Amino acid sequence: MHNSSGALADIDPVSAGFTIDRDGFVSYRDSLLFLPPKERGAFRLLLNAWPKVVSKEDFSKNVWAGRMSDESLARCITQLRRTLSNLGVVAIDAFYGQGYRLAILADKVRRLSAVPAMVHSPQKSDVAKPHAALVEACIHARQLLERRSPDAFSQAEVILKNVISKAPNYMMAKLLLAQYVAERAFFDGNIQRSQIDDALGELRSVQNAEPYLQGLQSVTGYLLDCKWHFDEARVAHKQALQMSPDDDVAYYRYGYHLIYTNAGSEAVNAFRFAAQLNPFSANIATMLVRACACANMDPAEVLAQARSAYSAHPNSPWTYVILLFTLAWVDPQPELAHAARHFVEKNRYAHALTSRGVAYILARCGDHAGALEVIEKHSSIHGIHLAALTAMGMLDEAMIKVKAAAETGFGGLPYSLNAPECAAFKQHPDYPLVHEKVFSRMPKK
What we know:
Arc Repressor Mutant, subunit A; 23 helices; three-stranded antiparallel sheet; globular; OmpR/PhoB-type domain-containing protein; Serine Threonine Protein Phosphatase 5, Tetratricopeptide repeat; 4 domains; mainly alpha
């Protein structure tokens, strides 16, 4: 049983600062909580039932229309706890065999009562709350970004730009659009470097309007990593973790930063903590696998981690690709190339990184013609197929592409350069020049 509060029931949710509007959205101290529909419905039940326990039957009836599984409720409560932890004034207690209860942390509420509400809310009092439909649109856009497919990226961009055109003062939409730029810069490079600078400029306006908006510092660090300003990025990531120490996404992005800066062991720790905070994220699970590889862990341990990730997320196409990728790295076999080709036939390229993963599997397992076909079909100026070219011993060809990628000044090239499957590429005589260009702005030790 998870029980974080004793009998602290002398402050009710309204007095603590929570309100529910007529559209069913929940606010804390006049600041709208950005919750997906299921989490929002569960939180409303907990607020309205306080201080009583909400049974699983009530959750199923009122939030899932009678079609709820124990896993879906556990996932929802985990995500809800993660969001509410940033507020620091409530917790959700679990009662085995009964359900869940909202706990008001009275001492923390009293401690914050002397702090002006504007510390947690937009500093501009004339900013109107966005229409419910626009909030829902942003939640949908965020879910699309998590899919990491080219089609999902494009859909999210259209949605967010539409929301901003209708609600130019809605800072969450601007934050998500900046996240879109960062995701696209890393995963497929299908943007211009100027878009990263523009997104950072927009985040400065968000900083002025809502300096405590969750994710602001983390996305800033993510964008700075994308343009290889790792020294500035480190500062932003540290601020993000200080402001939101229980934010799995902040640790996830920090883990990427650590891989970029060749700190594999620290990246493993960051992704492991992110996985503890959010065990339902396939994205975190797969990056933990890659961090273990970048940390030069024993290949058998990396493979075990890949198997664990796929076992925990069997419906995620990307965890399957990462498993095949790791198997090819550890023990290349022709059967893995066949499995990769079959995957593409069934799933196409459902993830923006699929082509680089499949190309490497084919190259590593002896199907060089197939790998070259994938590389030609999904070519990119950002050197995304470095691992495949290295596996085929085509180091001069790889260097031509890497030099072109280095000239762009942004993208996921640092990740590829630090990946263990690309280690042989570092023996190329021109590598020191590339390294100096890409890693010129490293954090001070």
